[in-house]
Each structure stands twice: as C-alpha cells, then as structure tokens.
Amino acid sequence: MDIPSKYEPQNVENHWYDYWMKHNYFHSTPDEREPYTIVIPPPNVTGVLHMGHMLNNTIQDVLTRRARLMGKNACWVPGMDHASIATEAKVVAKLKEQGINKSDLTRDEFLKHAWAWTDEYGGVILDQLKKLGCSCDWERTAFTLDDERYASVIKIFVDLYNKGLIYRGYRMVNWDPEAQTTLSDEEVIYEEKQGLLYYLEYKIEGSDEKVTIATTRPETILGDTAICINPNDDRFRHLRGKKAIVPICNRVIPIIEDEYVDIEFGTGCLKVTPAHDINDKALGEKHKLETIDIFNADATMNSFGMHYEGKDRFVVRKEISKELEENGFLVKTEQHMNKVGTSERTKAVIEPRLSDQWFLKMEDLVKPAIKGVLDSDDINFFPKKFENTYRHWMENIRDWNVSRQLWWGQQIPAYYFGDGENDFVVAENIEDALALAKEKSNNQQLTTDDLRQDEDALDTWFSSWLWPMSVFNGITDPDNEEVNYYYPTNDLVTGPDIIFFWVARMIIAGYEFRDEKPFKNVYFTGLVRDKQRRKMSKSLGNSPDALKLIEKYGADGVRVGMLLCSAAGNDLMFDEDLCQQGKNFANKIWNGFRLVKGWEVADLPQPEASKLGIAWYQSKFNQTLLEIEDHFSKYRISDALMSIYKLVWDDYSSSLLEIIKPAYQKPIDKTTFDQVIQIFEQNLKLLHPFMPFLTEEVWQHIAERTPEEALVISKWPAVTATNSELIAGFEFADEVISGIRTIRKTKNIPMKEALEVSVLNEGKISEDWDVVICKLTNVSEISYVDAAVDSALSFRVKSNEYFIPVGGAIDVEAEIAKIQEELEYTKGFLTSVQKKLSNERFVNNAPDQVIAIERKKQADAEAKIETLEKSLVSLS
RNA sequence: GGGAUAUUAGCUCAGUUGGUUUAGAGCGCUGCCUUGACAGGGCAGAGGUCACCGGUUCGAAUCCAGUAUAUCCCA
Description:
CATH superfamily of the domain at 547-722: Isoleucyl-tRNA Synthetase, Domain 1
Helix content: 40-55%
Distance between the termini: 60 Å
CATH architecture of the domain at 547-722: Orthogonal Bundle
Number of strands: 31
Number of helices: 26
Strand content: 15-25%
Structural class: alpha/beta
CATH class of the domain at 547-722: Mainly Alpha
CATH topology of the domain at 547-722: Isoleucyl-tRNA Synthetase, Domain 1
Radius of gyration: 37 Å
C-alpha cells in the first residue's frame, strides 16, 4: 500500500462529511440515552463565516462530538437569525440599486422581496459551517422568522401583554436616522468624538441684558423651550423669573431654575430642548415645558427649522453657527470631547427622539434569572468573572423597548379600532382581536376591516430570547416529547458581547415561560483580535477569509489553530501561524500512522523494550485522559487539546514509536503491532472532537469499517488505573537518554556509532529501563561499576552518575568546571531547603506532608552533592 | 465619572484552598543533524527580581492596602 508522506486535507474532508451525512450520524431523536443538547447562537441570515463564528462553532462541535462519543444522545440544533435591521438594510439597498424605493412598496410587497433575498443569499453560512466540520443536526435547522418561531413570538407577546408586562409608551428612544428605526440601549455604541462647544448669547426679554449658554448642538436652538439656571448660582440671581429670546426664531422662552444644572460646566447656564435630549425631556416634564420636535425621521430639519428645512442636522450645525456668528450671537467656540451614541448596525449618529413604542417591564422578570445564576448553581458561567457583568446589568435593568420601525420581523399583534390612546387590543390573530375589540369598544358592529394592525415589528432579540425553547416547538406545544427531552439544554457557547442582548434574556425567558433554566452552562469565548490586538472587523479588513484558511490549512488545522490560542474568556490574538501548527500536527499524526502501517508483521517474540514501552504508554495515556477529563469539566478546551497534543507528539510519536520501532527493514512482532494499533485507535478517539476529518480518515485506513464502526460514533476511552511507578521509571530513563544524547552532541559522535555506558548506581535505580535507554541512544551495553570511571565524560541524574568513555583526551578542566557549576546550584538549593527546615516555626506549623517533601528534597540534594564531590575528587 | 478584569520568558498563556526542587507550557529564537514515518521532521540550548511600593505569614507569583498601565462594561 502506498500512502503519501503528506496529509492532504482537501482530498478527504468533503468525502467524510458526505459520509457522515449519508449515515445520518448527526441526527438525533429522543430515546433512552441521556440527552446532550446545544443550540447554536444563530448567525445572521446575511452573515458569512468569520473568525468569531469559527472559534465559537469549533468549540460547540468539540463538545458535541465528545458527548456523542461518550454515548450521549447529542443534539446540536443549527439555525439562523433574521437580523431585522441588518437584513432590512441590505434588502433596501438592493432594491435601491434596482431603482425601487421602500416607501413605494406595501408591506407585503417589501416582504416578498425580503424573502426572495433571503432564499437567494441567506444561509450561506450554514454551508460554511459544514466545511468546518460542524456536526449539527441539519434536519432541525430553524430560522427566527419561520412560521413556528413567528407563532411562538406572537404567542409570547400576547401572553406578556395579558400579564400586564407589556405597555405602550411615548418615550424618548434611540433613533437611528439612517435605518429609521428605534434601537435598544444595548445597540447604541458610544464613541468619543472631538467636537466644539458653542457659547451662544440669548437676549433677555424687555432689557439689554444677555445670557450666555454653552451647547454642543447649536442646530437644536430652534427647539429650545427654556433656559435653565441653578438656583444656588448667585451669578444668575438677577435672571430669576425673566424670559429669554431664542436667536433666529425669536421665540420667547422662560428661564427656569433647577439643581440639575452643573455650575462648573460651560457657563453654568443651560438651554433646554425637551424633544432632543433625554435630560432636557426630564426637565421639560418637571417644569411643564412645551416640546418642539424640529427633526424629520431622517434627521433633517422639519418646518420648525425655518429656512433650514430639509437640510441634515450636521449641515445645519455648520450653517447655523455661521449665521449666529454673523448676527453676533456666537461668543466663542471651544474644543470639546463628546461621547456620541452611534448605531451598532449602521454607524449613524443616534438621535434621541420621542415616539410611541412598546415596552416590556423587566423589574419582576429578572428576579428568577438573577437567582438562577448568582444565588444558586442552576446555571454556571465559564469563566465565572462574567457573573459580575451579568449582575451589574440585571440589577440596573431598564424596561426593554421591543418595537422597531421595520417590516422584516414579527409584526406587533396589536390592533387599533379607533383613534383614542387606548383604542387597541392585543391578540394572536385578527379574529380574536375582533372579538376583543367589540368588547372593549362596546361596538358589536366592528368588522375586521375596521381593525388596523400596528405597523411596527418586534426587536430581533424578542425572537432569539426564546430560541432554546422555540427550536423544539416548546412554546406553541409546551408539553411535546422533544422539548421535554432536550430542554433544558446543556451548554451554550457564545461571546461575552451578547451577554445582555441574548444570554440574560434567554435566562429570563426560560424561567418565565417554562419555569426552568434554558441551559446548564454558559461558556464565553473571547473576541477574536488580530496580532495588533485590534478587533477583527470587515471595515478594518483585518479578518482573514475563513474559507481560504480552511482551504489552505484544512478544517482540522484551522480548528486546532483557533483552539490553541483560546483560553476561556480571554480575547484571542489570532495568528495564522497557529493554523500552520495545526496543519503540522495533522501531518504528524498522519505519519505516526504511516510508519506503523508500513511495518511487516511477523510471528516473533515481543522484545522487552516494546513490552515495557507499551505498558508505560498505557499508563501515560490514562494519566493524560484524567487530565483531559478535568480540563473538559472546567471548559478548558485549549488545555485539553494541549494535553492531547503532547501525548500524541511527545509520548506516542517521539517516545513509544521509537521504543518499538523494528530495525530497518526488519519485521515487527505481532503482539507489539496489535497493541500499538489499539493504542493508536485510542489516540484517535481523543483527537476526534478536535480533528474530526483527519481522524476519521486514518481510522478508516486502519481497517475496513462498517458504518456502525465509524469513528464518529465510536466509544470514548474509559479511565483505568495508572501505574505511577512506570511513569516515574520512564521519566528517569528519559533523563538518562537526554544525558547520553547531549554527550553525543558535544563530542560530535554520530548516532551510528554505538557507545558503552557505565553507571554508578547510587540511587539503586532498577535496570528494567536499560533496554529502552540502549535502543533510543544506540548504546551497546550499560555496565554497573563501583567507582568512577577514568577518562570518561560523565553526567548525573539524581544521585546516579553515568560515564561514557570517549576516544581521545578528556578536557579535565571543562569536566571539573561543569561539575562545579552543578555543585554550586545544588548547594544553593540545599541551603534554601535547610533554611526552611531549621526554622522551628516552619517545622511546627507546616503540614506534615509539606515537611516530608522538604526532607525528601534535602536528602536528594545531599546525595547529589556527595556524588558530585566524589566525581571532583576522582577527576583531580 | 462609576464598575469589572488583568499585568508571569520575544509572543500567547498555565500556575487550581499560600508550601511538589531556585516558576512551567506551546510557539518563536540559537546551534547541530540530508539516506530508513514525518525538514510540515529530529536533538540540544538560551531566555523570567512573576508591573511597582508597602503589609500579613514560618513561607507570597498566589492573600491585603496603595500606585502605575492596559482592556472591557456601564453612565
């Protein structure tokens, strides 16, 4: 059989993915086994795979595949998010290219376009996840806007409304003038921007006096309805009760007093624009001021903007400051750092805007969710530090604005039957609404034609917060077999950036609607950054193309590369070199298999070295398996991978294979061969969750396998007893091997030339390992001596001393120097140990075990010093 | 402005209730190695006053207080 020396992932990955799909290994249905469930954080339907997804989904796949191997009924539910703002923006842009304006379309027409767009371009990301190897149950693919999820959302909205938790309010909201919709507080990003602080003079009515105010937004003066001073500020005492005149529009406005004004800031005097600032709104309500909205929905000026009508606010800012300056109202400007809210999606500067919106009362809803995470073990966060973030938000929660002025989403099921503020009903469908409306209005003549449904759609998160339930139809059919079996789910893997948007809200929803947590553990991954610590983003162009990476390094290589640098919760600095490391590892495993496969097997007795080596490896494997289980239990995925990496590379490839390797072109005994194959298969099982493609490929190369014997559904190794004596024995032997190799190096003795080694066995070390040492260092014989050997190079391991006679003169000076250096170190070490032991308080207070360790250290060091001193004597 | 988290080798990170040698790993770096699994490899080696300043303790990278710096969240 001819196996290529390099592993070529491109040739095998699609093949095995198809094989897995064909045999339906990823599909899950409820059965007797313990379920293991993950719901995917649904990527945006518009999305393409980026580094964040790759990390996130690799971790989910590792967890899912491991659970499957452990005999659990693993179910990883995939899906997508309709991402109302982002998707609607894309569809609007696409239509614009075709010369179609959204405003010319009806809602139904627009939605038709949006669905067409979704069907054509959406969901690319799901195919990309397959390339990455994700073992999702694709038959369960859900969409936050499909019929089932739509119905769930509507049902929940009505339920919450009927519980009195949803209300309609005229509130100041974050308005995105570009998308022309409301944003929740969480969707606003504050950025520091250098701006100007304008000092403006207002005339005082009926006098020549003037008052100077400072503002960052001169264009809003046309909406001013008051000037505010601090009652404790003596500088403005004379203005009390007077009125001021707004420049340009010459409106007369009152001068009010309120302690809200910061005396130190600007001039200590504030203009009040209730329609365009949240604080001014509060002042306006308190002092019963008029509210004048001067903007259109796209943040251009309306008729209150006078000759600026139709112009954008930023254009107006420039122009009006010029006009103010020309007319002597502008005193001066100053540089000023300003925090400006911008839209997460469109990057537009947010306008505070008053409008009718739907809100969800959060105060009582959060209570069980706080308890579930913080005051009990119901839900665990990994890493734990994010519990603080969670607490902070939950304890300061504000009502959730759930309405969006968009069409792409679930339409709010509120139906208006009149023009009064409360002339509406909320119902799951128009028939129910009509019945309710008849009752509420006392008008039996109403028909469905008299009802008008609210135009707004719901926030996307109002559908994704139901995800762990809705994917199992748990809302429309709350007692169905699937939701009872799979819910609550086990693990959620997501980024800490959506802890409020999504994680917290799912927890709230879980307790509210099913009286049960949505998941047991939340694993927060870090954000993927580039080497310069910058966030990866499309606009920076610093995000590598995920598919190209897979093409270049193989999915397994990329998976390993991502995981190697991703300690839980820490941001990870992605470096393409790590994928190379992953690819190299794949190749190493491949060659570890190729070597064994190339051996000719014969019916021979098993050599001692092989027997010992295999026994040792089995213990080492078991020890590592324990480590791995421990890492997994703490969600230390990258540590688990590193343990396997070292096991396979160092212990299996570098040590075990070298120990059992037959002489060149000689056959191997069958016992060893069978054992090493079995060992290799166990390795593959540990590797499979991390590197599914390569491992399945090798697994199927080892033997013909039926579909029932595929690696993907094999059995995770069980922990057995570890023989620590074997492990310690090898560690010692390894040090001896290293010593011999070092001498070979320094003296340039080629590996081909056999050496003879003598040992002064002060430490009474077992001879068992000598066969292994000889094989790995090409030593013909290890002889035991009673005294130091003359004219030989030496090295020491613990209190044992090893001698290698070499041809030619020994540099005695150099040998002495080397020993003296070692002696000095050991003496220094001994001193530090003795210091501890001679300290009475240490001996009295430290636990016995610690003292025993220290005494052992002392004895070892003393023995070593004795050995070293003897060597010195014999050399001089 | 308020809060959280961090600061350990060139880089990325471990270091679990203070005590397993005088602090570890992976990568990188340096040197040597071309026939026989793998140069995508092997072997060996260098590299750190654990941010700083105090304190608690028999003992501190680890606990406490302060300082500096960085990142994130909130306003």
